[in-house]
Design brief:
The protein has three helices and no strands. It is mostly helical.
Amino acid sequence: SSGINAEYGDLDLISDEELEETYLERIAGLKEMFPSPVRTGTSYICGATKPSSLWLYHFLRDAIWITTTSAIILALPLAIEVTQIQAADDLKKARNEKLFEAKA
């Protein structure tokens, strides 16, 4: 018992600046704090997060590309046709106005 007290007493004499730990040492120290199932579950979740995130990124990227290109391919011809019809209607109105002005 006196040997253990002597060791801890010696640690109290060392300043905090001299007892620097690396982050890796601190994480290794935390390992003892958590039971094995918690560590295993956390490791599994962290390991599954990266592949899942990459899969989601690629899926959304492909889905956005397909949606955007499909909308352009389907909507652009319709928009051009509508514009042509409106231009033809405007031309017909202008022609009718000139025709009725000439008769009056």
